[in-house]
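Give me a protein, keeping tokens residue-aligned:
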Amino acid sequence: MAYYITKLIITTLLIVLISEIAKRSSLAGAMLAAIPLVSILAMTWMYVDTNESDTAVAFSNNIIWLIVPSMTLFIAFPFLIKKGLGFYPSMGISIFMTILAYYSVILLLDKVGLRNIN
């Protein structure tokens, strides 16, 4: 149980730290957020949990296919804000569009036989 609490605390602290840095400097916060910290943490926790790198490698390979659809959020959100929508509606619509983009890529990968998501 202590291990899971440690994982939770470390992960939470990183997210809070990035958001606090972003309040002071949006560029510095964006650079830290652009680093795939969640992925790095997830792969690290996978390795620590299993002592095998295969699951982290498979995880990393699957992320590659989802990079492009994740850009949907970062394109749609500022566009919607600039069009006059409020923060929460813009975020909600952007998240929904990103989910659709993920789903579309996964369907496409299935159709062409490239999907390797376990």
